[in-house]
Amino acid sequence: MSESKWTFSQDFYTEFHAKAADITSRLDDLKHGSPTPGAVQAVAVDVSRLAKSLVEATGGLPSYDQRQCEMHIKSLEMAVEVLRGASCAVPKFSFKKKAAKAKTDDPAIHAVSIPLNVSPVTGSVKALSSLSCRYLTAADFEHRATSGELTLSDLATCIVNLLPKDGHSMDISAIHVQRLTDCVLLLPRISGSILLHNLSNCVLVAGCHQFRMHSSTNADVYLSAVSNPIIEHCSNIRFAEYPDTLMQNPEPQGNTASTVQDFSHIRSTPSPNWSVLPKDYRQQCWPVTPLEGQTLLDELKRILPGGDISQN
Amino acid sequence: MGLLTIIRKSRRKEKEMRILFLGLDNAGKTTILKKINGEDISSISPTLGFNIKTFVHRSYTLNIWDVGGQRTLRPYWRNYFEQTDAIVWVVDSSDRVRIQDCKEELHNLLQEDRLTGASLLVFANKQDIHGSMTDKEIHDLLGLSGIKSHHWKISPCSAVTGYNLIAGLDWVVEDVAHRLYYSSMVPDRGENSLDTVSPPPPQTVV
């Protein structure tokens, strides 16, 4: 590849991503606010402008870049379409499912009305998903006796306590967590890795070999990890050590909190996306016994970093 | 003497191979490499950037590039494509949630011109974890039977126990060696297949 072509492709790549990031953030704003057709249209125009610039650059880019950019455009276009749907109030679109659950004012009734959904995966996988206002323990899993992989997804205003109890511990070697809002997770120390996506306003106690957290905001993490924990596309994450009071076999632990790496901030300056949780703000009293109804909500309000439960 | 002959001759002298380890984050790429090398695997951090390992295996010098799989790092994979003889695509068999993601990334990768002709080994890692997907399941979920552009194979393995790692690497080395150094000899060797240890009966080849 000639020098000028190379420079061009590098420049284009940088510029493209800057513009795409700008559009993404505007889309996010619209998503969270109430999108007006005008605002959505303005974004749509910018997306098509970006698409045009990509078409014009055809031939000057390596094919892999070209494809990556095209895919990026496609995802932006889809996001715009979704917003268009929302702003015109087309009834077809409803991603209010989870939000509607959290809105219910009477948590006691709610707790009864939602059946335990074990996600439709085969094998002896442990999975909990789509629940709200619950205190969950190992007893809520179907495959208590087996060991292996654990999946938690789509939970709102829940406390999940999987700490060993009466000598019974779950033998877990990998944990996958997705889409949790206003939740407290008390997890034992496991030998494998923990992978989390899309948490907001959560408190997490965990011990593991590798820790990865993606696309999450406002979370307090009490962690014991033997390798460097990492975050990516996160903001406002606070780290502290695994609480001594919850530890089964207290062992000396490294200073996990100071070794966090932020993959969205690979620079020499400190990452603005995480901090060490100040000692005074650390939880001393953990909800290790089952709670329900209003006491569950009160306990969540006390512990969660947001101090409140989102009502949207 | 044609250009191809010259290239072949020079490469035969060096007997080198360049192998790229890719896959989503948390797949176990670095752990596999360290295990093969007999290094400590108890405190491996997620890879920020890349690792290079060079070692001799079956009389070939392998240059293995292990590139981080975090989402923010994936755009940089393209910087490592040049002159790649083989891709080892590592899959976390316990991660059902992201298997679709994994499929998309793999198929995107295979469209890349600079990877044309490279052998592809899919490692279905973490078989030690109870309830993990089998190699057969992963074969189906990743749509491997649709891959016609590359010579491929899927092997179940475990980086923690070391199960099947060497056998997988053997296949890679053999496949690349046949192509680079003996390609004029036997054109019709091993089919794309599911099984590593022994050649499967025809009906298991999907």
Automatic annotation (TrEMBL), chain A:
Main location per the UniProt record: cytoplasm
GO biological process, one term: tubulin complex assembly
GO cellular component: cytoplasm
Family: Belongs to the TBCC family.
Pfam families: TBCC, TBCC_N
Domain (C-CAP/cofactor C-like): residue spans on this chain: 115-265
Transmembrane regions: none
Organism: Pisolithus tinctorius Marx 270
Keyword list, A-Z: Acetylation, Cytoplasm
InterPro entries: C-CAP_CF_C-like, CAP/MinC_C, TBCC, TBCC_N, TBCC_N_sf, Tubulin-bd_cofactor_C_dom
Compartments, as annotated in UniProt: Cytoplasm
Subunit (UniProt): Supercomplex made of cofactors A to E. Cofactors A and D function by capturing and stabilizing tubulin in a quasi-native conformation. Cofactor E binds to the cofactor D-tubulin complex; interaction with cofactor C then causes the release of tubulin polypeptides that are committed to the native state.
Statement: the UniProt record of this protein carries the keyword Cytoplasm: yes
PROSITE patterns: C_CAP_COFACTOR_C
Protein name listed in UniProt: C-CAP/cofactor C-like domain-containing protein
An annotated Gene Ontology molecular function: tubulin binding
Automatic annotation (TrEMBL), chain B:
GO MF annotation terms: GTP binding; GTPase activity; metal ion binding
Gene3D superfamilies from the UniProt entry: P-loop containing nucleotide triphosphate hydrolases
SMART domains according to UniProt: ARF, SAR
Keywords assigned by UniProt, alphabetized: GTP-binding, Lipoprotein, Magnesium, Metal-binding, Myristate, Nucleotide-binding
Entry-linked PROSITE patterns: ARF
Binding-site residues, Mg(2+): 30, 47
Residues annotated to bind GTP: 23-30, 69, 125-128
InterPro entries: Arl2 (IPR045873), ARL2/3 (IPR044612), P-loop_NTPase (IPR027417), Small_GTP-bd (IPR005225), Small_GTPase_ARF/SAR (IPR006689)
Pfam families: Arf (PF00025)
Taxonomic superkingdom: Eukaryota
Family membership noted in the UniProt record: Belongs to the small GTPase superfamily. Arf family.
PANTHER family on file: ADP-RIBOSYLATION FACTOR-LIKE PROTEIN 2-RELATED
Protein name: ADP-ribosylation factor-like protein 2
